[in-house]
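Tutorial, part two.
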Amino acid sequence: MSPPENARRRAVIARALPFALYILFLVVAEPLAGLLGADLRWMYVLQIGCVMFALAFFWRDYGELREPAPAGPLASGAGWAVALVLGVAVWVLWIWLDFSPFAFAPAEGYRPLDEAGDLIVPMVVVRIFGAAAVVPVMEELFWRSFVMRWIDNPNFLTVAARAVTLRALLFSSIAFGFEHGQWAAGIVAGLVYGWLYRASGRLWLPTLSHAVTNLLLGLWVVLTAQWQFW
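Running the prediction step on this input gives:
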């Protein structure tokens, strides 16, 4: 195997493994909690911890997080402002478009409550931290930097963000949407985050927008007890 092929394989693993670990825990968390005799809800700590470890291990591989901003209307502070506004807009759509047929049947969700019905604050903090600080980095590296560019060319590192086709943007957004219970809002979110990456050439803009959406959603869930969103 040639060194370039080794490099391409490592690039795929670096962006896919953190996401794969996150999904794996959705499958194994319950039996693992039973095996350890632990509260299933605390498995989220292990889930986010494993994702953070994988991201840290491969951090030097994420050149797209260190690239200077290309010239353009979103290259200045205006880009960050647009990302913030779009993050809020996606959050509004997410909590509004929560009905059939635009969302799957609601699940019980993650409920950080004790037997008296009071919030378990450490659980809330970990959940919001994971959703707002870890998941956006992990998912944007996977869905936008990897999948969206890979659709255009399996040697995805050669595809500039601004050269991504509309076909790749659409297909990756549909897949991203159906990863979530609110699938219709998820597709729109994928289109928004993908457009930000494509228009700006910077992965940090969709990551920020994604983080704003998830942070507001987490705060909304805690304030309204709409646990199905978690």
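The mean pLDDT is 95. In part three we will examine how such features are distributed along the chain.
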